Amino acid sequence: SVPMNLGEALGKDFVFDHKSVSGEKNKTYSYTFTEEYPYRLSTGFAACCKENGEYSGDKNSDMILSNGMHMLAICDGMGTGRKAGAQSGRVLDMLEEMLNCGYDETEAIDMINSILVLDESDEIFTALDLFLFDLNKGVGEFVKAGASPSFIKRGNKAEVINYDTLPVGILEETHIKKGLKKFQKGDLIY
Q1: DSSP states of 41-70 as a string?
Q2: pTM of this prediction?
Q3: CA distance 190 to 174
Q4: 105 SS3 class
Q5: How far is CA 84 from CA 59, 90, 175, in A?
Q6: Judging by beta carbons within 10 Å of its beta carbon (0-12, 13-18, 19+), is residue 124 exposed, middle or buried?
Q7: Per residue in 57-89, pLDDT tens?
């Protein structure tokens, strides 16, 4: 099989990436294989529009970065509808690119903040809720900038992760807070 041959050639274990879309393009097929890590996340996002709205201004991201980190992020742009959605999407696009290029989360958010503050076309700020999970170690990092609390459920106990911070783009200096947690099989994060 392809994953086994890739694994033998590269000295790593690979699996078929079920999130990848394989379809017929000019009568050819495309398949994506990713490195298999000791830990993995099962993820899901739910979204809805504001009352009487047709478009949500919130955006989310779910991707495995080149450094073996699984990135989950939710961005809530200022305002509602398409304008807020464009702001949220812009921030997440920049964040994905910078983290995938090797910047750490603080550097990436600092640069995004500078870009938003210097953008003279409009006042732009956005709440950012970022979770980075190390697929090799089972350790997760919460990074919040103006974001709502997160919750960790382990068995019958729940822990609240809440940091008092300001959104990205509101001031020249970023106001993010971070916290590391070791996770176990079956832990749920909300």
Answers
A1: --------PPTT-SS-SEEEEEEE-TTSEE
A2: 0.80
A3: 24
A4: helix
A5: 9, 10, 21
A6: buried
A7: 789 999 999 898 999 999 988 777 788 888 889
